[in-house]
Amino acid sequence: MPDVSVSxxxxxxxxxxxxxxxxxxxxxxxxxxxDNASEDxxxxxxxxxxxxxxxxxxxxRGGFGANHNTVIRATSGRYVYVLxxxxxxEDWQLDGLASYLETQPRVAALGPKLVYPDGRQQDSxxxxxxxxxxxxxxxxxxxxxxxxxxxxAPRPVDWVTGAALLLxxxxxxxxxxxxxxxxxxxxxxxxxxRLRQAGWDVHYFPEATVVHHESQFSAEIPERRINEMWxxxxxxxxxxxxxxxxxxxxxATGAQYAVRAAAAPLSRRSTRRMLLHAxxxxxxxxxxxxxxxxxxxxxxxxTARR
Length: 306
Prior knowledge:
about 300 residues, two-stranded antiparallel ribbon, globular, alpha/beta, single chain, about 45% helix, 10 helices, ten-stranded mixed sheet
């Protein structure tokens, strides 16, 4: 039984996926790629260039949590490393990550330091987005008291990003896998909140560094991406804080983005994007990435019926 099973979900990111798998070459981990109905030859590249990698090729597109759940159920490692296809590392330190969890039996989730390709650190650990934290974000415009990915020593945090997230299978068997009602975004926050409620811990582990290249698959459709992100956050708020708490959090967060939109010309940010965030943090009306996947799946099914 391997110590670490690596779960990678890929959608139309062939070159990024190839770089990720190349950087994982030589590791002792069980590596599984679920190709999310890509159209760019990603599955063929895995078959041809990485014969040691197990491939699950999907005909229909699913969400982040549902796809990773499929891989988690199909693997056997004591620890599951959920990775984006747009990540690489000079040294994944899989043995070091697993050893840390061996010495910390109540840590269920572990997140490495994330950096951009140019070496700048990327925020990757935060406090849970409670109504109180949302109100604090309004006071500080998100600049204080929210981000937890700092320091050079491992430390407890509320939650770490799903771009590189090592999970203890024992804990998953206790609290369940990703909630598949989240299509994309906030599913890792929800999972780690449930782990914390069950008495497990989450740690930030800066002794391991992962480069996050940030796939452009969803970035090319920013309004749908923003809609999906906020639809998921609203679902998270309602699930864990009720309708009143969700409304408080939404109002505080929307006000924060409204202030950011007003100041956008001075900070060289996109006023339109800040206004989209402000609108959606109050209420999401437009289609998101789930609808985009549904449209794609509908076309596939229609073609198959001809």
